[in-house]
Design goal:
Blueprint: E1 2-5, E2 9-13, H1 18-28, H2 31-34, H3 49-61, E3 70-76, E4 82-92, E5 99-109, H4 118-132, E6 137-142, H5 147-155, E7 159-164, E8 173-179
Helix pairs in contact: 1-3
The structure holds coenzyme A.
Coenzyme A is lined by residues 33, 36-37, 106-109, 114-120, 142, 146, 148-149, 151-152, 155.
Length: 182
Amino acid sequence: MTIAATPRLVLRNWTEAPADLARLYDMYSRPEIARFLGASANLPLTDPAQARTRVTRWQERHADHGDRYGVWAIEVRDSGLVVGTVLLKPLPGRDESRLTDDIEVGWHLHPDSWGHGYATEAARALVDRELATGTPVVYAVVHPENTASMAVARRLGMTHVGRRTDWYGGEELETFLLRRPA
Ligand SMILES: CC(C)(COP(=O)(O)OP(=O)(O)OC[C@H]1O[C@@H](n2cnc3c(N)ncnc32)[C@H](O)[C@@H]1OP(=O)(O)O)[C@@H](O)C(=O)NCCC(=O)NCCS
């Protein structure tokens, strides 16, 4: 299911099609992807069978949210290549089993697709849509050493508000936010 489209990209569900599962495994088994994603992400993947489990888990976790919140594949329109993941969802709190009312946007790209602006373009579409629904603020939370991810947040026009420990089990994370235009 397509949930959003941009000039270069289609944002859609990850599926259990073999090409999606192979791409997902190739991406999330890489240390450079796992490095900054936190302990709760349980990465890197170590067995191709885990790709299917991930897709199922993402579908189940956000089944009640329709196409508003979720974890989606970013596909390049011209080539059909899946270049990564974009997500929009409620942030887990200090107690990670409980979701807060704070909405986060996030991005993961396969290293072969870094440097083209895909993360920024995909995230912008989701953030604009979410703010247009009346949500006052969208957050991005980033490991303090993840300069590439902080650059995405800045390209989106997000404001850096320092390190906060409100989410993801109390992990200290650089926090960026974008407010709905007045
Ligand atoms: C974070 C991550 C997605 C950033 O990837 P990225 O490719 O740098 O980000 P974008 O897709 O927005 O691309 C921006 C880059 O493309 C360049 N670019 C090229 N063509 C472009 C275009 N048409 N439009 C916009 N930017 C373009 C930009 O100049 C920029 O490069 P620069 O940083 O050298 O100036 C990537 O490093 C990643 O997946 N890391 C691992 C997972 C991760 O840590 N995710 C974040 C968790 S918080």
